[in-house]
Predict the structure.
Amino acid sequence: MNDYNKINGETIFFGCIACPSNHVRAPTIFNKFFIEKKINALMIPLDVSPENLSDVINGLKKINKFKGMAVTIPHKLQLAKLCDYLSESAKATNAVNIIKFDNNGLIYGENFDGAGFVLGLKGEGYDLNSKKILLVGAGGAARGISLALGKENVLFLDIINRTEKNAHDLVNLYKNYCSKNNIKVVNDKNVDYAKYDLVINTTSLGLSENDELPFELKYFNKNCLVCDIIMNPSKTKLIKSAISRGLNFHYGRHMLDYQFILMTKFFSII
Ligand code: ATR
């Protein structure tokens, strides 16, 4: 079990909550895993507007065989507030990318984005040692990734974000959590793009075909690795731009692929 024909009264359910849900990859990966491992379970996409988030979660946690869900844009910060227990990384980031319900309807939140992103870079052969990094965005994913990078021996981390205040909040969080001072906010006026070894898009720009580029690549140096965390489409406008400029690139899917094992353990399904 379970291909879709074998859903029965014992099937347990997981969700993948997003808005919109068109881009999510977790259901595809989890359902393939359930079939391979003969686990009687199913993950379904849940397209939920932010204003309905709390109602939906309060309902789902009362369904006995609904065990939890992967969480993505734009719910990571709001859903953390609805959790009864948060892991260390979820607490530090105020964001969750996965939650589970216990038998009493209590909600446990975890955030594997950062760990998954760093595992993905290393797994694909990238050495983070002494690297100069530009992180674009300051939302839930950016927080997780910055803290995970803070555990590595990177040289420094610069943050650029549409809303500068959110970038400053991220910097304060990092300093508290990592006890390191190798992070600062930069903006379009003072940033020297040519100096970075690694640039990471954590904004939602690229999810939609019509989105503008999150940033221009023309000022980056030839050795800079361009990373996106958007999984679908896999070749975002940013990745296409990196390819056309002959720059190295790193797909968004690696972040989820490399945290998948952590997620299955969290759901207690391996
Ligand atoms: P996630 O949990 O996936 O990180 P999020 O918490 O909603 O999602 O964060 C989205 C990020 O994308 C934020 O950095 C946001 O910038 P703001 O802090 O200014 O809101 C950024 N973002 C979203 N839409 C954007 C846009 N049109 N242009 C630039 N940045 C954008």
